[in-house]
Amino acid sequence: MKDIERLHKGLPFPFEAIDMHAHIGRYSHAIPDLSVASQVAVMDRLGVKSTTVSHMQCMSWDVTWGNDEVYKAMKEFPGRILGYASMFPKSKDFVAAEAKKRVKQGFTGFKFHNSNGFAYDDPAYEPAWELAEKHHLPMLFHTWGAPKVFDEIRNIALKVPNAYILMGHSTATKWDEYIAFARKAPNIRLELCTSSAPLGSIEYLAAGVGAERIVWGSDCNFYSMAQQFGRIIGCTLPEADKRKIAAENALAILADRK
Amino acid sequence: MDFIDVQTGFGGFTPGKREVYAASALAASLKQAAIGQALVRIIPEANDFDIKHSNAFLYVECKANKGLIPCPVVAPDAIGDLGGAEHQVQAAIAAGAGAAVLRPGPDYWTAEPWVCKDILTALGKHRLPAYTAERLIPVAQFARLAEAYPETTFIYAELNYRALRTYIPLMQEFPNVYLTIGCNFNFHAGFQLIAEKVGVDRLLFGSGLPTSEPCAAMSELIYSGLDKTSITKIASGNFKKLMKGIRK
């Protein structure tokens, strides 16, 4: 059955997708259902195996509370909800303690968001990078095409060749810059989510860096997971490339944890 | 599933671009996504400055491409260069229009009730929906029009994914307002909330083509968890009902 036929019938997809960019928690604009169960329900309808969430507090200072909330969700839905531990660069000691605690709790990786006003290469973050390098973990960065941010993340990527650098929102703008950036280091992956679902964006990135360097993310509950998954359904790449982007590349990252 | 796309278009000129997105290209994209029909307007509209020429071009292309329903431009006609409001609406209906688009910025008029009384009254009289986008008429101004012309049906497109706190009361307050679900309608569990608060009878499917991937909005609707009857209404049923209500 073709993807479009499956979509029209509302059937789940024949392979289990892995969402590498999602959230739980409240944000300032209205999110109609804040329950984690509502996210798992849409995952079931789509055929998404797991989603890797950070708390909305990744954009602010109270990451400890946010990470606790993520940990609760991980325990409530084991194997379905995976966790990114959000980091706040209060001090190196704070980051070291928080990162160590969350890795021990089974978090999948780390989430960094520069809405907190700090550069991604702020030295206080170093303990988190070191743990990611030691355990081969993914680190998801919120990005929106800013040259300064590319520079900051490049500095980190080169220090941690065994960690995975996930560039959030790689289809939002400046696709050529994301492609060029991904070519700078083999541990960089381009994550796809953006609200406007630009036509042809996935195909463009795949042509530039190869499907094996792209991972799917929904940004749910900030966005609709089904809306973002529809981009995979509709893109014109071969089935094998869609599977890489929606599942296999993420599975390889998750399986590499040491 | 039968889909009618009410948030799409073609044919607009972008300065610096040598190619214009053609109706035939849109028709091909719709076919690829198995979308049977589409209400189409000329987009982008910034350099589409001759309303009569624009509408004539739209009608020709809609005739040449099966499944395209025209959404021509209308405007207040204070100076009489467009033949009057009644003439504009009748011409649109004669050409098979499913709605008519209001673009106050590009067409140099102000979207206030006292400016567009003629055209909104004529649209209301003929039950031809007045179509616009949040980008073209900000929501506060749009609400003033919807309030002033309760007999006129309004379709509001290109919504903002952060503005549900505004859209829910907009729909509750103005029963003549319909919303499209094309880009950037993008809410986790948004359909269930709208269904609970205002029902699904005033939601219309839109793809966002040619800028957005059409399967995104389709997927958001189909995997929303709504029952099949509700999904069918949004996909095409609600717009078909509006089309049936148009009076010559």
In short:
Chain A is of the alpha/beta class. Helices cover 43% and strands 16% of the residues of chain A. Chain A has ten helices and eight strands.
What would your notes on this structure say?
The complex is a heterodimer of chains A (258) and B (248). By secondary structure, chain A is α/β, with parallel strands linked by helices. Chain A contains ten helices and eight strands. Chain A has a single domain (3-255), classed as Alpha-Beta Barrel (TIM Barrel). Chain A has helices at residues 3-9, 36-46, 63-76, 92-104, 126-135, 147-159, 175-182, 201-209, 225-234, 239-255, and strands at 17-24, 48-55, 81-86, 109-112, 138-141, 164-167, 188-191, 214-215. In chain A, strands 1-2-3-4-5-6-7-8 form an eight-stranded parallel sheet. Chain B is globular, with a radius of gyration of 17 Å. Chain B has helices at residues 23-32, 51-64, 85-94, 117-126, 139-148, 164-173, 190-197, 214-222, 228-244; strands at residues 4-11, 37-43, 68-70, 100-101, 130-133, 154-157, 177-180, 203-204. In chain B, helix 1 links the parallel strand 1 and strand 2. Chain B is built from nine helices and eight strands. The chains are: A alpha/beta (258), B alpha/beta (248). The A-B interface holds A 4-5, 7-10, 29-33, 38-39, 41-42, 45-46, 195-201, 220-231, 233-235 and B 1, 29, 32-34, 161-165, 183-184, 186-190, 192-193, 208-220, 222-225, 231.
